[in-house]
Amino acid sequence: MASNTPNDFEINVVTPRRGHNGAAAGETTPTTTAQTSSSTTTRRPSVSSPSSQPSMAPRGPDMSEYFRPFKRYSPWVVPAFVAANVVLFAITMYINDCPRNSATGCFAKFLGRFSFQPMKENPLLGPSATTLEKMGALVVDKVVKRHQAWRLITCIWLHAGVFHVLANMLSLIFIGVRLEQEFGFVRIGLLYVISGFGGSLLSALFIQQGISVGASGALFGLLGAMLSELFTNWTIYANKLAAMLTLVVIIVLNLAVGILPHVDNFAHIGGFFSGFLLGFVFLIRPQFGWISQKKAPPGYIINSVKSKHKPYQYVLWSISLILLVVGFTLGLVILLRGSNLNDCCSWCHYMSCVPTPWWNCKSQQVYCESSRIGNRLNMTCISNRKNHVYTLATEDSAHLQQLCSQLCI
């Protein structure tokens, strides 16, 4: 893990000539200051000026011009994550091959095998649910009964359509690049993946029908980490309340979108709380006084700071790490036992969808008749009487339900 106290600051020291009192033009006393690497708030160093003859020397340049307390990293892992998501979406569309596999036509047929499923089936301009399942989407039935826990990770790299991947990747660039510049690729890369896992885990515990894909849980983890970073590094921020208010408003607005139907708000909530706890673990900053004490040149009066971090930072670090380990362990045990947390919480489903006069949160039930000869399945939708013959390698109840849903649209 990269250090947060690099040797990349500059010191500008000009010593007055003997026989002069330092008041001559162009001569300055030693000065140093800190520039924050934060794009939203100002950070204040704990460094005092030399005490020798302050009244005889003119004011030199502001100290912040030369002392940079925290290194700024060149971001590369967030752009790599964006590229990986886009490439995987293109591969998914190639495998989907709508003209060959869809029984109800395709949208944008001029794209050939990259054309999209019908708008009624997937309004996000993307592949079928069957293809996403093949690529590693979160299917709780397969996680529990077939022990495919790896789907809790793979699903965060898949997206349901062009609109879906575009919105998530723009958000990742906007949030992730700045965080990586501040804290480096190791911390932000781990934070992104672990938060995504936390979002998938909570989603699987509450939403056990259908499939789930998307990087939204990981993105909410980055937002949660930004909030906890503000708390754990509270003393080094100047505009505390303004930064906190801005973050809280952004988080609340994004979580509010999750009450719409077909939006997996449990993944958002799980990712947010995972990232919030991870922020106390990964994004802790040392005290400015400790940095100044280590890096200031001879002749400076530095406030003595023995500890690298404040006691409350160690407390938050310890509590957060314990909660993460215990929470993930219990969540996996409960999930792999096949439990549904909705049975223990009768109102929790409202956190993901709130019914209104304009939409209904209950999924529409569809029914089909089918007969199978060898590997050929003849299926007919009861509601619209559409019929199609599918070629299946294996018979899977979840897969059959998805085929029935597609046929009945």
Report the sheet-strand fraction. under 5%
Could you spell the SSE succession in H and E letters?
HHHHHHHHHHHHEEEH
End-to-end separation: 51 Å
Q: Using DSSP, what is the number of strands?
A: 3
List low-confidence stretches: 1-67
The computed structural class is mainly alpha
Describe this protein's structure.
A three-stranded antiparallel β-sheet has the order 1-2-3, with no helix packed on it. The chain has helices spanning 77-96, 98-101, 129-135, 140-145, 151-154, 162-183, 185-206, 216-232, 240-257, 265-282, 288-295, 311-336, 397-407; strands at residues 368-373, 376-381, 387-391. It is mainly α and 409 residues long. The chain starts with 76 loop residues before the first helix and ends with a helix. Mean pLDDT is 79; it is low at 1-67.
Q: What would you say about this model in short?
A:
It contains 13 helices and 3 strands.
Helix-strand layout with pairing:
Elements: H1 77-96, H2 98-101, H3 129-135, H4 140-145, H5 151-154, H6 162-183, H7 185-206, H8 216-232, H9 240-257, H10 265-282, H11 288-295, H12 311-336, E1 368-373, E2 376-381, E3 387-391, H13 397-407
Antiparallel strand pairs: 1-2, 2-3
Helix pairs in contact: 1-3, 1-6, 6-7, 6-8, 7-8, 7-10, 7-12, 8-9, 8-10, 10-12
List keywords for this structure.
single chain; 409 residues; mainly alpha; 3-stranded antiparallel sheet; 45% helix; elongated; disordered N terminus; Rhomboid-like protein
